[in-house]
Design a protein that fits this description.
Radius of gyration: 22 Å
Low-confidence stretches: 475-483
Largest sheet: none
Number of helices: 17
Mean pLDDT: 81
Length: 483
């Protein structure tokens, strides 16, 4: 638990700082380019995310796993081989994709995007794709080494550079300036990441050795990743096309804003995962792995649930303050997306083990079921309940994955989720769903409800956990290694 808390603290504080930076940036963007601009960016991002599957996403998870594994074994030869393999393939494939998209630009814009997206936006986003792909590979390599302080430092620097560029260039060139800032900040990030990783891995870029055992493992792992990743982004893209077909680009912009905002709910969990995923990729005794799983579940529940309740109750206020009045219209469905994100956060507790131990068949199966629900429910229900249909798809798919993964890991390697964690999880689900019905109450009443729920949740915890929390909050003397 100590290492989980340490990772969460560093990354969490960084994420908090990045939230402030993002709030400033999103507020500025919302005022100057509005929902239409958000929609254009989101549609382009969704389309190029599909291309990212081929250029880098298929490598990144395996890169984290094997860098962590070979680094813990001090195998510098295999470290250099897989890092070189990932860099060369990422650059070569992303370059080819950019060239092909330029050749067929008219066809792509007319059939896969929207006529409302100007060619200048398309051109700049396409060029930035190479740098964006490389940054993803660099970031994964750094995570594999579990060098938390340096990773968060680079993120902060990149975020500040991006903010300065966004403000300056939007003031100069309006919406076009935003796309110029994306291009420049992406290539600046490449330089910063490359300089840092050169200190950790001594190598010269060369033609990858495809016969290397390390590269074969990475390539095999990537085969499954490219399938599940491509399926995932196809479904996300299809969701956006469903919104466009039933509504318009502005509605897509509202959906994008909601998706962007709810990701902050898993702030602490995201920081802890930076340590948890590479650790679960290493060889561990069953008892240690089981203890780590339950510590991570407990941490995710305790650190995420308060933000879920706050976000649901005050979603309307958040949308108004963080964006603008134009975005408040989506507040009625905001709570469902918050709850869906809560389930996604808890899903990482189990999914990280499946990924780290390379249990590929269950990953493929759950991915197929998930993507089917993501598309089928919006397609059938969007006319009746609008954006809520997408949230329901996320909720049902995440619930299925949590239950299936927990059962599979128990049968496969004997991992058991503690009864205490299960009770806390079920209680949090009931309270969250009940809170969604209270979003239109007055601010004062919602504050009273928040206090009541907080006290109820706190005193529902086992006595030993209450003592630990009191020790952290009141005395700050609790030894985290004993949690």
């Amino acid at each position: 638990m100590k290492d989980i808390l340490k990772s969460s603290t560093y990354v969490g504080l960084t994420e908090a700082l990045l939230i402030i930076v993002t709030i400033i940036k999103n507020k500025f963007i919302a005022i100057h380019i509005g929902p239409e601009g958000f929609g254009a960016v989101n549609l382009l991002a969704s389309f190029f995310s599909i291309a990212t599957v081929f250029s880098t996403t298929w490598l990144t998870t395996g890169l984290v796993k094997y860098i962590s594994e070979y680094n813990s074994d001090d195998n510098k030869k295999y470290l250099a081989e897989i890092y070189n393999f990932a860099l060369v393939f990422t650059f070569a494939i992303s370059f080819i994709i950019v060239v092909l998209i330029f050749i067929f630009s008219d066809y792509v814009r007319n059939n896969f995007l929207s006529p409302e997206i100007l060619y200048n936006y398309f051109f700049l986003y396409n060029i930035s794709f190479i740098a964006t792909s490389l940054n993803s590979t660099f970031s994964s390599a750094l995570q594999g080494f579990i060098i938390i302080k340096k990773a968060v430092y680079l993120r902060v620097v990149n975020a500040i550079i991006s903010l300065v560029l966004v403000i300056a260039l939007i003031l100069l060139y309006d919406t076009l300036g935003y796309f110029i800032s994306i291009l420049i900040s992406a290539f600046v990030s490449v330089i910063l990441y490359k300089l840092e990783l050169d200190k950790l891995i001594k190598m010269r870029v060369s033609v990858p050795n495809l016969k290397s055992p390390a590269n074969k493992k990475l390539f095999k792992y990537g085969g499954v990743s490219i399938f599940t990743g491509f399926l995932n982004f196809i479904c996300q893209y299809a969701q956006r096309l469903i919104i466009i077909s039933y509504a318009n680009l502005s509605t897509l912009g509202l959906y994008s804003a909601v998706n962007s905002l709810v990701t902050y709910i898993g702030l602490a969990n995201k920081g802890a995962t930076y340590y948890y995923l590479p650790k679960m990729s290493q060889t561990l005794p069953l008892a240690e792995r089981n203890a780590l799983l339950n510590d991570f579940i407990k941490f995710s529940l305790y650190s995420t649930f308060p933000f879920v309740i706050i976000s649901i109750l005050f979603g309307q206020e958040f949308l108004l303050v963080l964006y603008s009045k134009k975005f408040v219209s989506v507040s009625g469905v905001f709570g469902y997306f918050v709850f869906a994100q809560y389930l996604i956060v808890l899903l990482t507790c189990f999914q990280s083990i499946l990924i780290g131990q390379a249990y590929l068949k269950p990953l493929i199966f759950t991915s197929l079921v998930t993507q089917l629900l993501w598309i089928l429910l919006p397609y059938l229900l969007y006319k009746r309940i609008g954006l809520t249909s997408l949230a329901i798809g996320f909720i049902l798919s995440s619930t299925f994955e949590i239950v299936f993964s927990a059962i599979y890991l128990k049968i496969k390697i004997g991992l058991i989720t503690s009864r205490k964690n299960i009770v806390i999880f079920i209680s949090s689900v009931i309270i969250s769903l009940a809170t969604i019905k209270m979003i239109y109450l007055s601010f004062g009443i919602k504050m009273m409800i928040l206090i009541i729920i907080s006290l109820f949740a706190f005193y529902s915890l086992p006595r030993e956990d209450r003592i630990k929390i009191k020790g952290i909050v009141l005395r700050n003397k609790y030894n985290f290694s004993k949690v």
